[in-house]
Amino acid sequence: MDNDLPKSPVPDIGECGWSVYCHVRKALAEFAKWLMEGLDWIFANILQSVWNFFEMLFMGLVHRVAEPLFNNLAALTAGVPDSVWYFASFAELGFGVKAVLGALFIRFLIRRLPFVG
């Protein structure tokens, strides 16, 4: 029986009614949502690209510096006496040097961050 009623010439205006403020507020909320999604995507891609660049740069530098050093490692360590090797292995000098150099490198990186260091 409801189908027999004539349709209203006024379109359905939804939950806001005729309030312009409500429509503007909804439009601004949708725009802010769109803008935040776009900025999230852009910053995620930029940060990923920067991270990849510095990772490749660091790995290239390590490869260039460390490869000649490790090729001559036997020649570099041939002149060290056995007594020094004994105390170095007893004191875990290899682990200690790695830990100290790693800590210094991390401190160097943290000091480069403008909002932390």
Q: Can you tag this structure with a few keywords?
A:
mainly alpha, 117 residues, rod-shaped, 4 helices, 2 domains, 74% helix, single chain
Structural features, described:
- With 117 residues, the chain is an all-alpha fold.
- The chain has two domains: 13-74; 81-117.
- It is built from four helices and no strands.
Short recap of the structure:
By secondary structure, the protein is mostly helical. Helices cover 74% and strands 0% of the residues.
Any chance you could write out the topology, listing elements then pairs?
Layout: H1 20-71, H2 73-77, H3 82-90, H4 93-112
- What does the average pLDDT come to? 82
Described by strand count, sense and barrel closure, the largest sheet is:
none
Strand tally: 0
How are helices and strands ordered from N to C? HHHH
Low-confidence segments = none
What is the number of helical segments per DSSP (H or I, 4+ residues)? 4
Q: What is the terminal-to-terminal distance?
A: 75 Å
Rough shape? rod-shaped
Tally of distinct domains: 2
β content, as a range?
under 5%
The radius of gyration is 33 Å
Helix content: over 70%
Helix/strand-derived category reads: mainly alpha
